[in-house]
Amino acid sequence: MSVRHIGVQEARKLQTEDGYTYIDVRSVPEYENGHPEGAHNVPLLHLDDKTRQMQPNEEFLAVMQANYSNDAKLLIGCQVGGRSSRAAQILDAAGYETAVNVKGGFGGRRDPATGQVIDAGWLPAGLPVETEGSEEFSYRALQQKASETGT
Could you give the 3-state DSSP secondary structure of residue 85? Predict the structure, then answer.
């Protein structure tokens, strides 16, 4: 299978009309500072407090598998689209049938040379955003479920 890539407007439509779940793979602090309405948080990377560098979340796939079945309809988003593309590839390789990458992510992607928007982001597109969300969609809660199931 190959990963499908869509824009934020189509992602919002799939979320609201077709029951897709938006998985925000940004770090916990990024997610807490604002995320697409209804998004769940499963970071692909964590900020290492000592080195201040992003490090892989070794539990990413286990947390996903404990919380979402292989046939779940998933929208995978990050800040501009890089992390989400990688996360969608990981999920596709693990047998997820519908892990769709959201191009542009939360903030949008721009051409580094010209500054022109390449892929519109969720926030700049004026789509619904929240800073508070359901605790059950936080990484802490999703991670807890994974440890309880022993995944």
Answer: helix
User: Which of left, alpha, beta for 75 (phi over 0: left; psi -120 to 50: alpha)?
Assistant: beta
pTM of the model: 0.93
Structural domain harbouring 67: 5-149
Q: Residue 22 class from Cβ within 10 Å (0-12 exposed, 13-18 middle, 19+ buried)?
A: buried
The helix (run of H) or strand (run of E) holding residue 3 is none
Beta partners for 56? 45
CATH of the domain at 70: 3.40.250.10
Q: Tell me the C-alpha distance between 105 and 83, whole Å.
A: 9
Phi, psi of 34 (to 5 degrees): 145, 135
Contact 118, 89 (CB under 8 A): no
Helices 60-67, 82-93: inter-axial angle, 10-degree rounding:
70
Position of tokens 């799939």?
A: 14
Q: What is the pLDDT of residues 73-92, one digit of tens each?
A: 999 999 998 999 999 999 99
In the chain, the number of structural domains is: 1
